[in-house]
Amino acid sequence: MSSITSISALDVPRIKSDFPVFEERFDGRELAYLDSANSSQKPRQVLEGLTEFYEHSYANVHRAVYELGERATAGYEGAREKTRAFLGADSTREIIFTRNGTEALNLVAHAWGLNELGPGDVVVSTVLEHHSNFVPWQYVAERTGAEFAVIGADGNGELDLEQLDAIAGRGRVRLVAFGLISNSIGSVNPVEALIGWAREHGAVTVVDACQAAPHRTLDVASLGVDFLALTGHKMLAPSGIGVLWGRQALLNSMEPFNLGGEMIRSVTIEETTWNELPNKFEAGTPPIAQAYGLGLAIDYLTRVGLERIEAHEHDLTTYAMERLAGADGVSVLGPPAERRGGIVSFTLDSAHPHDVAQILDSHGVAVRAGHHCTQPAMDHFGISATTRASFYLYNTRTDVDRLVEALADVRATFA
Amino acid sequence: MSDLYRELILDHYKNPRNHGELDPCDAHAQGQNPLCGDDIAISMNFSGDDVSEVRFTGRGCAISQAAASMLMELVEGRSVTELAELPKEELLDEIGVPLEKNPARLKCALLSLGVLKLALHRAKGTPLPEEWAGFEER
Ligand SMILES: Cc1ncc(COP(=O)(O)O)c(C=O)c1O
Prior knowledge:
The structure holds two protein chains of two kinds.
Chain A: H1 12-16, E1 32-33, H2 44-56, H3 67-87, E2 95-98, H4 101-116, E3 121-126, H5 135-144, E4 147-151, H6 164-168, E5 172-179, H7 191-200, E6 204-208, H8 220-223, E7 227-231, E8 242-246, H9 248-253, E9 264-267, E10 272-274, H10 288-304, H11 306-325, E11 330-332, E12 343-348, H12 353-361, E13 365-366, E14 368-370, H13 375-381, E15 386-390, H14 397-413
Parallel strand pairs in A: 1-13, 3-4, 3-5, 5-6, 6-7
Antiparallel strand pairs in A: 2-8, 7-8, 9-10, 11-12, 12-15, 14-15
Helix pairs in contact in A: 2-10, 3-10, 4-5, 11-14, 12-14
Chain B: H1 7-14, E1 27-33, E2 38-47, E3 50-59, H2 62-75, H3 80-84, H4 88-95, H5 103-124
Antiparallel strand pairs in B: 1-2, 2-3
The structure holds pyridoxal-5'-phosphate (PLP).
Pyridoxal-5'-phosphate (PLP) binds next to α4 of chain A.
């Protein structure tokens, strides 16, 4: 692997020993967990840190005047600062905690989209998007009378930028939403070109970083986007926490999303005024411990080093694509390893993806089968589902070998 | 190997019984399982109160397609009222693999039975209990 020569390799056995789930045996076997694009496993550092937080520092945040409440608030706000640094953002005011990535994207769709869009406007998404970065835009376009335009892709599942001119011809391009890495086939989208194009048209950009944030370094300042969403459970954190980062000026100009406690400055029978950022967008008791857990996960990822994680996954992806290329009846979707994240999606000539996944499970190999919440992408390829293997810092080439061996059993079963 | 894929299931999957479409037919329905994308269509003809002929087409996982094929063997020659009340246990016994622990695959296994009940309901007005009603909107 030429790309990793300058970066010291991951100590995978040591990393693996941080994840208690790998001590578990399934029919006597260790788990080959190849479903981290769906949700990641959690290291002891996060699990134990959470327990400690609950045991010593838990109360509601922002409203308790006693010591415990202050500790909880410090833990929660500390996680916001870690997230700010992780994303290279200017201010913690720009870091809004949500329940998950889906809620972060919906926040923009509702608080910005429903108020800003109208007839003559064009809202752009792509055919590769996860439903959570597709359906909200389709919906706000429908509700506001704006046009919904979808950037198509080629046979490799790479976006077809030649369509951009035609899309611009349909009206005023106001918002462009796309993912950094496709969750269903793993292709890396051409971020610079898309952002350059969106800016030319004065459009707001929304980037879905749910599949990128766990695996590679992000820097919102150099990306040049306006909004970015991520989800904690795919990056070693507990479920129930997501992040929306947005430019302060935009967030300030927006209407609120959820209404209730914490997001208000003052409430009278006549009128309510909104709180400052980020509280304006965090109505109600937030996911306190989950946010704290995200901070612990960021500590862990930063300590290991995202460049090394990315290089390790690239090695596994390259290896998996080589091995699968030699496996009978397997067709891998998407671009070559150089232009993809740690995701390999494939079909098998003789068996449906759900049957494949079921038989792999009996070999202790966990993969995902289905449309991966990307039905437009499946339609694009003319299929209804794929089997998907995805890699993270705890995976090894042995996991890939076990996948390939188990696939031979699937083929034998359905021969 | 997973015990879900015993010989009989694979045999029905690879060699589906009564595969095809009756056109014209006395009753027809189609249904999908959104989770797996399984799709089953059933067409039937009646002779008096009995089902004289039945066919299915579909695509999807082995469990859904094999179960539909097995259902065909349970249906022909039986009366409409009997079939409208056919308990799912009868089909599950036929399939004969443990699905209790696997609610997702249970849905695959029972898709064809739901489509059958919908076809009977439409053609003959037999009752369609709540649990099978989900297909009707499509
Ligand atoms: C690319 C992408 N976007 C958004 C999401 C939504 O994340 P969540 O389900 O945590 O809201 C996912 C997760 O499946 C994803 O892969």
